[in-house]
């Protein structure tokens, strides 16, 4: 597969290389990834104002009037706007460059994998992207507004007048969305391990209660201190965990050898 000046040979045969050649391949992978990120940031540069408006939209639900948001968020430093623009460009550029970075990493890693491992990773790629997008959407649409309201109410409860900086708000928002997206990748990791035979459905059932507690503790750490946000993250993770058990169990049934055919009376007499 070719893309511009780069050539990807993910399906190539495994070839033994000297250690120094592997280091050179790693260096090329890092340089290409940095180049893809730089191009992604250049693409994101003119979109920074639109991305900022999109990130500020959940805050509109905290105020009665949307125009109050611009009066509420401040920048205190002379270079505050520049730092904010660079932060937005970096994260947006990373999102734009992510498909190419994944391809570069796959080109470096795939020759060392078996055919079975390559097939499992390929089949899981689309689901990984879908779950990451689902996590980000759930956070942006439901959890982030609730979390912002909780932070606002905490200030009112303590009798402190809130005045947030735009840099602090954007950092909180990006970390919140990224945390949801990454946490929703955990079922894909379990599914890959199950397809490779490293874990079984019985193991997942045995440790089900422990995993549930761990998932809700993780949700409590990554979300604001309100029960609604924690449930919005924890319940989908529990459902995805159960779905992994069902899928891994189905895979194990497919691997089981078929039962032996019954022996007829004529075969016994021969």
Report on this structure:
This protein has 270 residues and is an all-alpha fold. The chain folds into two domains: 12-112, no CATH class; 114-255, no CATH class. The protein is built from eleven helices and two strands; from the N terminus they run E-E-H-H-H-H-H-H-H-H-H-H-H. It has helices at residues 19-44, 48-56, 68-72, 80-109, 115-158, 166-183, 186-195, 201-206, 208-222, 227-255, 265-269, and strands spanning 2-3, 6-7. Helix 5 packs antiparallel against helix 7 and helix 7 runs parallel beside helix 10. The protein is flat.
Keywords:
two-stranded antiparallel ribbon, 270 residues, 11 helices
Number of strands: 2
The main sheet orders its strands as 1-2
| Structural class computed from helices and strand pairing | mainly alpha
Largest sheet: 2 strands, antiparallel
First-to-last CA distance: 58 Å
What characteristic shape results from the CA principal axes?
flat
- Outline the low-pLDDT stretches: 1-14
């Amino acid at each position: 597969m070719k893309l511009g000046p780069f050539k990807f040979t993910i399906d190539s045969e495994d070839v033994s290389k000297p250690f120094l050649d592997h280091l050179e391949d790693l260096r090329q992978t890092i340089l290409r990834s940095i180049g893809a990120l730089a191009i992604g940031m250049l693409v994101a540069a003119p979109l920074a104002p639109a991305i900022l408006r999109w990130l500020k939209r959940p805050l509109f639900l905290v105020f009665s009037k949307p125009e109050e948001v611009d009066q509420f968020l401040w920048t205190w430093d002379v270079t505050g706007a520049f730092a904010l623009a660079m932060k937005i460009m970096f994260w947006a550029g990373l999102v734009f460059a992510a498909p190419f970075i994944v391809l570069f990493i796959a080109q470096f890693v795939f020759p060392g994998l078996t055919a079975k491992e390559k097939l499992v990773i390929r089949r899981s790629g689309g689901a990984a992207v879908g779950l990451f997008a689902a996590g980000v959407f759930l956070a942006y649409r439901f959890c982030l507004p609730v979390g912002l309201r909780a932070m606002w109410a905490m200030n009112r409860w303590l009798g402190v007048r809130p005045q947030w900086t735009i840099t602090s708000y954007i950092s909180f928002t990006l970390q919140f969305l990224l945390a949801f997206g990454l946490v929703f990748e955990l079922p894909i990791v379990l599914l890959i391990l199950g397809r490779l035979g490293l874990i079984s459905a019985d193991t997942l059932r045995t440790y089900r209660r422990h995993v549930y507690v761990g998932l809700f503790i993780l949700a409590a750490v990554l979300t604001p201190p309100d029960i609604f946000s924690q449930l919005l993250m924890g319940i989908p993770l529990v459902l995805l965990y159960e779905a992994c058990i069902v899928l891994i169990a189905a895979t194990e049934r497919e691997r089981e050898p078929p039962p032996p055919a019954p022996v007829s009376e004529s075969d016994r007499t021969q």
